[in-house]
Design a protein that fits this description.
Elements (H helix, E strand, L loop, with lengths): L7 H11 L3 H32 L4 H8 L3 H8 L16 H13 L8 H10 L4 H9 L5 H9 L15 H16 L7 H11 L3 H8 L4 H18 L9
Helix pairs in contact: 1-2, 3-4, 5-6, 6-10, 6-11, 7-10, 7-12, 8-11, 9-10, 10-11, 10-12
Length: 241
């Protein structure tokens, strides 16, 4: 059995050191417990994704989890849905605008796809995601052009509510995972970009690959920019969100 890298005593000390009164500690413990549950879900999800990439079947994964194949798929395979996870209150202002812009780009589509989310990231030019793409793409504007070339121009009636595609839902899930992996409490444009790149199969990931924007290079650039922002001093909002 793998020993937990964080012990109960560490969590107790962390809560107690930040809150002088007992009820404040209790409220903080409840909040922290929810975050730990989320971390646990994403920890399992990470290794489910790893097993799938290695060729494991859903039957094999279900057996490892102690559930049926159907239960494993229901938990870990994203479905088309209009719901955002996490809720919008977890997103920075820029990330919220990206989703609004994605809906705008998908106004003649039946779904909101990764391509629409990527166009929203590019439109939010002040965000770290757009700046990262501009830094890494083969030539200025090539990523936007690559997306627009592949964009389905057929006008369709938009359902209400309009669902996110399964690829887009997976990218949003992976954006949360990127945020948690870096110890952030928010989801910014940079996390949305990392989610699109980690998803690998959607139209956005294909467009980014064609223009030379890789997950490794994007993550390295994002980490450097955030570290530089922290060194320059505290800011009222998450750096380059």
């Amino acid at each position: 059995m793998v020993s937990a890298p964080v012990q109960l005593t560490d969590l107790i000390v962390a809560v107690a050191s930040e809150h002088p009164d007992v009820l404040g500690r209790l409220a903080a413990a409840v909040e922290l417990s929810g975050r730990l549950d989320e971390l646990g879900d994403h920890l399992i999800g990470h290794f489910v994704d790893e097993a799938r990439r290695a060729g494991a079947s859903w039957t094999d994964i279900g057996e490892s989890l102690g559930v049926t194949k159907q239960a494993a798929q229901k938990r870990f395979v994203p479905k088309e849905s209009p719901d955002l996870k996490p809720r919008f209150d977890r997103y920075t202002d820029r990330a919220r605008r990206v989703v609004v812009l994605a809906r705008h780009h998908a106004r003649f589509s039946e779904h909101i796809g990764t391509e629409h989310l990527l166009l929203g990231l590019l439109d939010e030019s002040g965000g770290l995601a757009a700046k990262t793409i501009a830094r890494l793409e083969a030539a200025e504007g090539t990523t936007r052009l690559a997306v627009l070339i592949d964009l389905d121009g057929t006008v369709r009636e938009r359902p209400d509510p309009q669902p996110f595609t399964t690829h887009c839902k997976k990218a949003l899930e992976l954006a949360v995972r990127a945020s948690l992996r870096h110890g952030h409490t928010f989801v910014g444009t940079e996390h949305l970009l990392l989610g699109l790149l980690a998803e690998e199969e959607g139209a956005a990931a294909r467009a980014l690959a064609r223009t030379g924007v890789t997950r490794e290079a994007a993550e390295a650039h994002i980490v450097r920019e955030i570290e530089d922002a922290i060194r320059r001093g505290p800011r009222p909002a998450p750096p380059a969100a």
